[in-house]
Amino acid sequence: NYQTILKRAQQLRDMGVDAITIADNPVATLHMGNLAFAEIVQREADIPVILHLACRDSNLLGLQSRLLEAHVRGLHHILALTGDPAKVGDTPGATSVYDLNSMGLIELIAKFNNGVTNAGMSIGGRTRFTIGGAFDPNKRNLASVVDRLRRKMQNGLHFAMTQPIYDFQRFEHSVALTRDLKVPIFYGLMPLLSERNAEFLHNEVPGIVLSDEVRARMKGYSNKEGRRMGLRITHEMIDMMLPNTDAFYLIPPQKFTEMAVEMVAHIREAVAMRVAASA
Predict the structure, then answer these.
(1) SS (H, E, C) 181-219
(2) Cα–Cα distance, 62 to 3 (Å, whole number)
(3) What SS3 class is residue 78?
(4) What residues form DSSP beta bridges with 258?
(5) Which SS3 state, helix, strand or coil, does residue 17 take?
(6) Phi and psi dihedrals of 261, rounded to 5?
(7) Closest by alpha carbon to 192, among 228, 163, 161?
(8) Cα-Cα-Cα-Cα dihedral of 58, 61, 64, 69, to 10°?
(9) What is the pTM of this model?
């Protein structure tokens, strides 16, 4: 049942969102195949889709087949991901494939853009994929993560998207270390829902780290009050980050996609205020 999400995509398009991302069984949990749904959203919402493609669920043959399918379906923006291990998801007995990791997948997509398969055989033309990759500013050794981002660029990366970030100091450190890179970085923002949600994300979800301050602010909150506090924290992050980033990657909770509408509205208001102040 995807109609509610489709309507939300149409609403966000009308508010000025530039693209919609369609995840690939995120956190190894079962969802509709994202190729079909991405085509529906791109056609019926009339907005570009960034298609997530994870190495976890398909072998090298299957990944290449999906790339050919994406191309003919008109899905030309790919976020290349290794993918969370199948064991963390909701399907007991499922195994992870990992013929490639994200680095290898970026290189593979670049080969398709040059008209050849991984084995060097012609595909009868060139694809025109815009290639994205993950960048995690939450890692302890950020310098090594930035070095990996550089290597992804050498393999053909065009843009990067981050995990949700909840610590402004981590954001500032990330900006300082990536200032010389000629690649746009979309910083992830995902509003928290409650103290329980905050603690689960911090302790159980790979790649997400909350600051002690944010965890303390969410303590004792749940339901509507929790969502209100989560949005307040996200809006504060937007205000602080806006001068030093060109793009945001908004990640609304699956059951509360309306929170994306409030984030977009806040960004538009904040941008308008900055423009007016500089006029």
Answers:
(1) CCCCEEEEECCCCCHHHHHHHHHHCCCCCCCHHHHHHHC
(2) 28
(3) strand
(4) none
(5) coil
(6) -60, -45
(7) 228
(8) -80
(9) 0.94
Rg (CA), the chain: 19
Contact (Cβ atoms closer than 8 angstroms) between residue 105 and residue 63 = yes
> How does DSSP assign 106-171, residue by residue?
HHHHHHHHTTB-TTS-B-SS---PEEEEEE-TTSS-HHHHHHHHHHHHHHT--EEEEEE---HHHH
How sure is the predictor about 246, in pLDDT bands with cuts at 50, 70 and 90? confident
Tokens read off for 81: 């991901």
**pLDDT tens across 176-228, in order?**
999 999 899 999 999 999 999 999 999 988 889 999 999 999 999 999 999 99
- 3-class secondary structure, 32: coil
Q: What does the alpha-carbon distance between residue 94 and residue 57 come to, in Å, rounded to a whole number?
A: 9
Distance from C-alpha of 260 to C-alpha of 264, rounded to nearest angstrom: 6
Burial of 141 (0-12, 13-18, 19+ CB in 10 A): exposed
How far is residue 50's CA from residue 176's CA, in Å, rounded to a whole number?
A: 27
